[in-house]
Design brief:
Blueprint: H1 4-10, E1 16-22, H2 30-48, H3 52-64, E2 73-79, E3 82-89, E4 97-101, H4 107-112, E5 119-124, E6 128-134, E7 140-147, H5 150-156, H6 163-192, E8 197-201, H7 203-212, H8 215-220, E9 221-223, H9 234-264, E10 269-271, H10 273-281, E11 285-290, E12 298-301, E13 308-309, H11 311-315, E14 323-326, H12 327-337, E15 341-344, E16 355-359
Parallel strand pairs: 5-8, 8-9, 11-15
Antiparallel strand pairs: 1-2, 1-4, 2-3, 5-6, 6-7, 10-16, 11-16, 12-13, 12-14
Length: 362
């Protein structure tokens, strides 16, 4: 996970409120349940010492959000009277989180968040395409349709005299419509800086359009057997998009797991709080890997977020009063502040103390 917004977070003074909510909206009383959940989380933050200014901006953010169409989550990071991060999550957090602490808690955002780059959802038929652009934060950025010659396509299907000529004309009109749709998708992808295109819709139209896409766009495109422009099958398309996005995240975990294993033999991978914090102090972490660290794990920190380690190690940096902080907050914050990437991993990798790192150099 890389993000310009998160760099701003790491450069901001705390305390931070880190809030992760389940915003699933698939029952009749979902709004009522959400209101109760947020009230309890707000009270929890107040009990931890959050002032009314901080709670007020969180109230505004929570009340102003749009619920997802089905399962989803929300991440909010705030400090002072500013909401620094307000992002939808691709899936709900395993449990609600409401923390007030000196450092932000970023692990759930990395674990449940969106791909980190915008992506395009395109649903096509013989007439045109419906395009949805989703931002790097998971929020809908744009939604629109582009249609070609609808009347000619349907009129020519009627048969009768000269049917073969009409069929040929219909096929040509369909190809023109699909060419225009391919151009719209390519333009939307480029303008959005998208790293993924999910292509759904009619089977024949989808297959034909894929061949019409420019090579660069086609390389980013993943066809799915879901979606319809008449709005039926929306839930099926949502599931298909989620599976594609999740598949990319799992592929990324596979990639970093391979690099971690191979790097260990060449001094380019370490694990455990001691070695990882040593690498963070030297700004030598290319990718911080987070497994399942203990909630009780702590390290010491100085005034700068990269001043981490044992108490004596931090004191040796000239820090007069090292402060004890949670490891699951301090290490991810330090990694991102130093330009590293944050990746959460599953059971494919197990680390001492729950942390590993791929290093920039030996």
């Amino acid at each position: 996970m890389h993000s310009t917004a998160l760099l701003e977070v790491t450069a901001t003074d705390g305390p931070f409120a880190s809030v992760y909510l389940d915003t699933t909206h698939d029952t009749a009383d979902a709004d009522k349940q959400f209101t109760v959940t947020w009230r309890n989380m707000r009270d929890d933050l107040a009990g931890q010492g959050a002032d009314e200014g901080l709670l007020g901006v969180l109230d505004e953010a929570v009340s102003g959000g749009r619920p997802p169409a089905g399962r989803g989550g929300r991440a909010l990071l705030a400090a002072g009277t500013t909401v620094l991060v307000d992002e939808s999550l691709a899936e709900p957090p395993a449990e609600p989180v409401a923390r007030l602490s000196r450092l932000p808690y970023l692990v759930p955002l990395a674990r449940h968040g969106n791909p980190g780059t915008p992506y395009v959802i395109a649903v096509v038929d013989q007439v045109g395409v419906t395009i949805t652009i989703v931002g790097a934060d998971g929020e809908l950025r744009r939604h629109g349709s582009a249609d070609g010659d609808r009347h000619a396509v349907h009129a020519a299907r009627g048969g009768g005299a000269g049917h073969q000529d009409m069929q040929a004309r219909t096929d040509e009109i369909t190809r023109d419509n699909l060419r225009q749709a391919a151009e719209k998708i390519a333009t939307a992808t480029e303008n959005a800086g998208a790293g993924l295109v999910v292509l759904g819709g009619e089977v024949q139209a989808r297959s034909a359009l894929l061949d019409l896409l420019p090579e660069r766009t086609r390389a980013l495109t993943r066809p799915v057997r879901a979606g319809s422009r008449d709005k039926d099958g929306g839930a099926e398309l949502d599931r298909a998009v989620f599976e594609v996005v999740t598949g990319r995240r799992l592929a990324r975990i596979d990639e970093v797991a391979d690099r971690f294993r191979s790097g260990g033999a060449h001094g380019l991978a370490v694990q455990g709080l001691g070695p990882v914090t040593a690498a963070l102090r030297e700004a030598n972490v290319e990718t911080l890997l987070v497994g399942e660290p203990s909630a009780d794990a702590t390290v010491f920190s100085g005034d700068e977020v990269t001043q981490l380690g044992g108490e004596q190690e931090v004191a040796a940096l000239g820090v007069v009063q090292p402060r004890r902080v949670r490891a699951d907050e301090a290490l991810p914050t330090a990694a991102l502040a130093a330009g590293g990437e944050l990746v959460t991993v599953d059971e494919r990798l197990e680390f001492e103390d729950g942390f590993g790192a791929i290093l920039r150099h030996t």
